[in-house]
């Protein structure tokens, strides 16, 4: 992603060079999952035979390294210095990102840290996990910069090609996570940034002749413009440097604070769910995504569910820990892991996910690759099992009417969250 000159002039990690990943999970599914017309055969109760008839998709998911590939516990450092750090989950380490055309990064700015003006080849949503700070954003086609004051819980869509800068004007660290759509990116699965200035700035790529003509300055002046900022990506400003004040009412229609918004679901001792779509927040329509924040109480369960609208989902653990299970093709458990703050996991389309929080509870931020995601639950008062007729459930599960009745009666009156039983 970054030029070699910048790697020599600043503190860069070689992991920034994105290698072209090999065959993706989707490629493998296309290659191996090609059901052929079958002659009618006698019914078999063998799960192994049933899986062979279905194309054994899950076996190829497992054997080609995608099992466990839904969870990323390793994040690569792109740059770090006095002003702050930027980290990314690389698709070479986490191939599911390129398969699903998703991307993820994390920005941490120390006091007086400035992320230099830039734009990216991906639409994304920034979510403030800690601290306060400023962002200046210039939307594509606009001639007016908006300067916004951000705080914990703020959600800010950054549309494709929008120019932005980020600054920590506080006394504590200011950190954000970015999750987004990389379907139009140079390297699907990764955000590529284009900086206007600094050691890897766009201005450095043009000759003096072009710059003199473009800006109407002398050659000496253009040299100063292109060489006076030796830093790259993130710099620390002098405490005497003045920065713009936030626009009055600037956050309106630009920022959505999830901390003060009323949750869609709120279960005592269970948890809270807030889903934000363009219906609630217009600017999300510019990035083609929707977002959610989940706060799961200690030892509570997030009910098994799947996206019935065919959305991919990427989740960042903001706080706490818990256990995540995901079930995919042919009833195979493709993820069964303990996750903690800082981890990232992806839920493929139609896969079923459930979470049980640890002793500290667990909070996470999610995005969905659809503006109006729809979810179907497999437990609780909105469960598909509860909606199906008793005779169908009895026949499908091959159980007695008595057990079917008990199964139905035990469906929790809660939706989405189940408090701990003790």
From TrEMBL:
Residues 68-223, 256-405 form the Cupin type-1 domain. It holds the Pfam family Cupin_1. InterPro entries: Cupin_1, RmlC-like_jellyroll, RmlC_Cupin_sf, Seed_Storage-Functional. It comes from the Eukaryota. Gene3D superfamilies: Jelly Rolls. PANTHER family: OS03G0336100 PROTEIN-RELATED, OS09G0552500 PROTEIN. This is Glutelin type-a.
């Amino acid at each position: 992603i970054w030029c070699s000159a910048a790697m020599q002039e600043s503190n860069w990690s070689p992991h920034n060079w994105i290698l072209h990943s090999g065959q993706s999970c989707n490629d493998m599914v296309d290659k191996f999952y090609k059901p052929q017309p079958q002659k009618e055969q006698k019914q078999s109760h063998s799960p192994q035979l049933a899986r062979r008839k279905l194309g054994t998709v899950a076996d190829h998911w497992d054997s080609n390294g995608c099992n466990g590939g839904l969870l990323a516990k390793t994040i690569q450092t792109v740059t770090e210095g006095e002003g702050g750090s930027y980290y990314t989950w690389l698709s070479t380490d986490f191939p599911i990102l390129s398969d699903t055309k998703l991307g993820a990064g994390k920005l941490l700015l120390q006091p007086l840290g400035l992320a230099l003006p830039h734009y990216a080849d991906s639409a994304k949503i920034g979510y403030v996990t800690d601290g306060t700070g400023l962002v200046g954003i210039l939307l594509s086609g606009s001639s007016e910069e908006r300067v916004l004051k951000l705080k914990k819980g703020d959600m800010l869509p950054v549309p494709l090609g929008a120019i932005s800068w980020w600054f920590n004007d506080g006394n504590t660290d200011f950190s954000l996570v970015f999750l987004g759509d990389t379907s139009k990116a140079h390297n699907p699965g990764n955000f590529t940034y284009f900086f206007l200035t600094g050691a890897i700035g766009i201005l450095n790529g043009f000759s003096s002749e072009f710059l003199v003509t473009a800006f109407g300055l002398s050659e000496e002046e253009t040299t100063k413009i292109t060489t006076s900022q030796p830093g790259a990506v993130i710099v620390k400003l002098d405490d005497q440097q003045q920065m713009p004040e936030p626009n009055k009412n600037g956050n309106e229609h630009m920022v959505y604070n999830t901390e003060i918004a009323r949750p869609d679901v709120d279960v005592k001792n269970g948890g809270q769910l807030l889903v934000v779509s363009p219906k609630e927040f217009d600017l999300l329509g510019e990035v083609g995504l929707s977002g959610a924040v989940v706060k799961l109480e200690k030892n509570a369960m997030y009910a098994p569910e799947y996206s019935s609208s065919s959305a991919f989902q990427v989740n960042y653990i903001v706080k706490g820990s818990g256990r995540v299970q995901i079930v995919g093709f042919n009833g195979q458990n493709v993820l069964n892991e303990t996750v903690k703050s800082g981890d990232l996991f992806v839920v493929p389309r139609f896969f079923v996910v459930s979470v049980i929080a640890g002793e500290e509870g667990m909070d996470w931020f999610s995005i969905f690759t659809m503006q109006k995601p729809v979810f179907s639950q497999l437990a609780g008062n909105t469960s598909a099992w509860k909606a199906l007729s008793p005779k169908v459930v009895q026949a499908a599960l091959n159980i007695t009417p008595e057990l079917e009745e008990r199964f139905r009666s035990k469906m929790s009156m809660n939706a989405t969250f189940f408090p701990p039983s003790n």
